[in-house]
Amino acid sequence: MVETGVSRQELNQVRMELYRQLPSLKQWVCVLYQELTEKGVPWEDGTWIELANITEVLRGGISMFAIPEQTRAEAGRIRDAVEHKTAERENLLCSLFGVLDEMETFIGNEAKRCNACGAEVFFLPMPEGYQIMRKRHGFPYWNADFQLESRERYGCPVCGAYDRDRLMIAFLEEVKAEGGEKLRMLQIAPSPAIERYALSREDICYESTDLMMSGVTFQADLQHMDMVEDETYDIIVCSHVLEHVRNDALAMKELHRILKPDGVCLVLVPLIVGKADTEEEWGCSEEENWRRFGQYDHSRLYGKKDFIRRLQNAGFYINELDKQWFGEEFYQEYGFDDLSIMYVATKDIKLVEPNEDDTHIQIQELQAENRLLRGALSGMNDRLAELERASRTNFSILFHAKDNIGWEINDRRFLDKLWYPQIMSIEDTIEDIVTNRKSIARFGDGEFGIMCGVQRWRFQKKDEVLANRLKEVLHSKREDVLVGLIDFYGDFGSWTDSAANGARLYLTPEVRKQHYALLERDRLYANTSISRNESWEQVRNQKRIWDGRDCVFIEGYQTRMGVGNDLFDNARSIVRILCPAESAFDRYEEIYSEALRQPEDRLFLIALGPTASVLAYDLAVQGYQAVDIGHADISYEWLLRGERGRIPNKYTNEEPGGYIVDDICDAEYEAQIIADFH
To answer: Has this prediction a pTM greater than 0.85?
Structure first.
């Protein structure tokens, strides 16, 4: 689910609406092309506006779908051409039609229907956390394909049914009661999607059971279901349960015992394509379960052959149902693939006959097993490469620490040779801002990088004008403007190991020399870490800055300070000026002019990268109080979560992929926007 008010259903609806626009947009482009080339109809300003609207549709499609890179790049070129009105018009229309057509084809292939709820949908991918955790813990098959566990079409955004739920429902549609009787059905460890479906069937008498779960018909241990009589159920669903059960042989025999002679038992477990043998061990730690079995609470990883053999030993005949059973058209319409394979165990009825070409099947299985082994070996090599890179990084940190040791140890014998910028504490900096209504411009590695002509961050390109303005602010002597520095020039005793090592890797002797060339030995600087929230005490102190104040947020598009949290709940009011998420200095004059339109008693809180340092200074010159607040909101989000990481609905420049941001729908946030320059 997209955070801050946008549900999976709403996002799916937005995607569908965008997809349905594409044919009419293509038609409009064709009409415009005909008017231009055949009728000589002149373009008006409204035409460029219409084209700009279409490019916004392209932008929306690119943000919501994994559009191929070539199409994304061409869409970007078209947006630039429309914005600057520079392209030759006939070629522009041809290119625009081509991109719309490619996008319609790509998105059309992703548009499916959920057979569980009937909705037109774009299925959700498997949660990324599974891949991350499996890779992190060294699971050798982290990148292998699982049967009936689609990475790209895993969940329905409307009803939440997983692909395995949807295929089981498709099978159950064909299981009908005869002569007005009711089918008795039992689901073990119930899935909500299967439960909803069964309860909707008038010819099914539905029951559920689980060892620990509340809200089931009865609680039972699958290994010992003594309370259930023999041959009780027409249908049993046992999906992704047996990998949790210590004695699966007993559990399978119980399933066989309570199933009617003509009944069907849908038995599914995680199966990796090509894996033949089963691995199992009980009592491992969660980390070891991730490493060996691919999930923290699994204690067994079945191989396909062994899984089938164990069911056969319990007395079952195993029916392997795939595309051939359900039909290729069904698979295409409802989003299944060749790995969508389901196992139905029966007693006396054979739903499918075994394939007589055993040799061909064995060759296919051996080929799949070889591919799996090669993939596992590749995964191990990747893991070794990661460890090697980590070792190199650690050595690099060691050597950088050696370069920095004179400053870090703060030995009195070095004081004559070394000097440190004088930096206030965080508490004193905030006190000065609150009590004396001072503004602050903060300088960190990004700002110094720009002043020294080095590209440090993707969100702000090198800019000579910005570099000169930053130097002006850094050297200013205004009493009402604090100039803040990161306190990383000396001892790291109070820093976390990760933060200290990051600072050491950055602050090489050459970089320190660049900084010291711009800093003044006798000046007292403020502390930039007023923007960081690493403890609840720091949050309480920081919130004094805007307590009871009418605030103007000047922030990057998708920065969304305070959205979804309570960091700014003690401000009297909030309005927002949205700016480009990247290279905001390109629109500086417009942003600055809009800021000057605000009442003089407003407090400006600015999160705009290096541009914020200049803007805070310029607003202070005009009599405003302006605080370059930077990372306050993101670091607060990390404090709430207990760990660093990408915030899906906010631009997170310090994290990998942090520039990929989910859309939101938040009426309060939208109402606060008074200007938008993004």
So the answer is: no
